[in-house]
Amino acid sequence: MNTCSLFSLLSLLLFSRADALYANALLNCVFTSTNDVVYLGQLFINKVLWGEYNSTVGKYVGFTEKGRQIAEEVNKNPSFLKQEKKNLEKCKTHVPVAMEILSKAVEPSVRLRAFDATDSKHPRMLVCSVYNFYPKQINVRWLRNGKEVTSDVTSTEELPNGNWLYQMHSYLEMTPRAGEKIACMVEHASFQKPKLYEWGKRVTESVRCDVLCW
């Protein structure tokens, strides 16, 4: 079998059936330090893990009947095993670069918006959206005239963007009052101290300033 044998075998399995199958291969470098690196190649069919190559095991292991058939074939192929060992070395080469990137905090951008609230005892809802930050840990709070607001507040979890950056959104249901100062306070590792983002600088009776971006 040549180096494309895995994909040839997969094609045979996929298209020998009347119903369509969806294949997805994930190649991952898992690491905690430059000295602790594992290469993991996983094969999913219809979201089910059929098998994987784990560099700590040194061979392909199948988890389903078809996956075990694939494992039996590819483990006989020296070229396949040699390539997987090369993939581990590639992981070890790129891990220091990844760790350097991950050691740097990325400052978030913050946006405040206001909407008419629905199904609420308050007529308005403020949204404090925090985008593109790293690391994941962040603290977002609401202040009214300098004092923390804990009621009528809901927040999402930190949501991954898929590029190692995160976003989250915090919501405050409110009834605007003249002269009242509402602010979203954000604490993050990229800041030397917490930052305040005031909505409209000062809330007016007409509530004219609905969107502010920083």
From TrEMBL:
Keywords: Disulfide bond, Glycoprotein, Membrane, Signal, Transmembrane, Transmembrane helix. Residues 1-20 form the signal peptide. Pfam families: C1-set, MHC_II_beta. Gene3D superfamilies: Class II Histocompatibility Antigen, M Beta Chain, Chain B, domain 1 (3.10.320.10), Immunoglobulins (2.60.40.10). Residues 108-190 form the Ig-like domain. The keyword Membrane applies. Its main location: membrane. InterPro entries: Ig-like_dom, Ig-like_dom_sf, Ig-like_fold, Ig_C1-set, MHC/Immunoglobulin, MHC_I/II-like_Ag-recog, MHC_II_a/b_N, MHC_II_b_N. It comes from the Eukaryota. It is a single-pass type I membrane protein. It is found in: Membrane. GO terms for biological process: antigen processing and presentation; immune response. One of its GO terms (cellular component) is MHC class II protein complex. The keyword Transmembrane applies. This is HLA class II histocompatibility antigen, DQ beta 2 chain-like. It comes from Labrus bergylta (ballan wrasse). The lineage of its organism: Eukaryota, Metazoa, Chordata, Craniata, Vertebrata.
